Amino acid sequence: MNLFDLKGKIAIVTGCSRLNGLGYGMAEGLAEAGANIVGVARSDMSEVKRKIELLGQEFFPINADLMYKENIYPIIDKTMKKFGKIDILINNAGIIRRNKVRDFSEKDWDEVLDVNLKNIFFFSQAVGKQFIKQETGGKIINVASMLAYQGGIRVPSYTASKHGVAGLTKALCNEWAKYQINVNSIAPGYMATDNTAPLREDEERNKAILERIPADRWGENEDLKGIAIFLSSSASDYMNGAVVPVDGGWLAR
User: Fold this and answer.
1) Is residue 174 part of a domain?
2) DSSP secondary structure code for residue 237 in this structure
3) In 38-60, which positions are buried (b, 16+ CB within 10 angstroms) versus exposed (e)?
4) Which residues contact 37 (CB under 8 A, 6 or more apart)?
5) What is the pTM of this model?
6) For the segment 138-147, what is each residue's pLDDT rounded down to a tens digit?
7) What's the domain range around 143?
8) Catalytic positions, please?
9) Is 92 in contact with 14 (CB distance < 8 Å)?
10) Which H/E stretch holds residue 172?
């Protein structure tokens, strides 16, 4: 079980301000495995901080809007000043905009691509350079989606961004694996979060989705704990460029 031990590790987790969110689920899992957490979000994280500290780990909140590239390096600087190192980055922050393709605006396209893809590249670039400087290796975990495999409905910019996340994961792996930096992605299926609330509230769409999931339920944030710990730990040291579905069997249908 020492393969999965994260004691003393420092993990940056973006988009972890909501207790029912995927970012919090992964942050909680890493904390349970021994890691201290640097939480990055635009909104208040006081409740998340309280919950993580109840597990006996530190939670260091940094408020930042990841739509803007210039906000990334101050996060690195604050983390280094606080902890002196970085071991893990989970690029979880993301947004979604829904509309028909024919009505989709440039603003909604640009904002989604900036947060969901551009931010991941430049955050990974910044943390990867820190890993190389530290000469310690490190773990980068990008959160993709089932829409890294499929087209979706009324979410063209989200779909494009998540396909991009899958490709970027492989591109980063090809350059950084030699530095013992593991770059992999998690592709969650249909998860019960705020982003999917409109789908769950739509009786017809909810029924159609559940009929396709062999597990016969929506995923919960706790369902990502295991894969997040695995990809953050030495158990995954020879895993590079993978996109791992956690979908209740959705892709198997």
Assistant:
1) yes
2) T
3) bbbbeeebeebbebbeeeebebb
4) 11, 13, 16, 27, 30, 31, 52, 57, 58, 59, 60
5) 0.96
6) 999 999 999 9
7) 2-192+222-243
8) 158
9) yes
10) helix 156-176
Establish if 210 belongs to a structural domain: no
Tell me if 139 sits within 8 A of 180, measured CB to CB. Answer: no
The reported pLDDT for the residue numbered 154 is 93
CATH number at residue 27: 3.40.50.720
Q: Please check whether residue 166 lies inside any domain of the structure.
A: yes
Sequence-ordered list of residues with C-beta below 8 angstroms from that of 227, at least 6 positions apart, any chain: 186, 244, 246
- Determine, yes or no, domain membership for 131: yes
What confidence tens digit (pLDDT) does each residue in 19-29 have? 999 999 999 99
Helix (H/G/I), strand (E/B), else coil: 44: coil
Rounded Cα gap, residues 121 and 170, in angstroms: 12
Exposure string over 230-242, b if 16+ CB within 10 A, otherwise e: bbbbeebeebbbb
180 Cβ contact partners less than 8 Å away, ≥ 6 residues apart: 136, 137, 138, 237
Closest alpha carbon to 142 in 158, 110, 164: 164
The kind and range of the H/E element at 121 are helix 119-134
Give how many domains the chain has, as a whole number.
Answer: 1
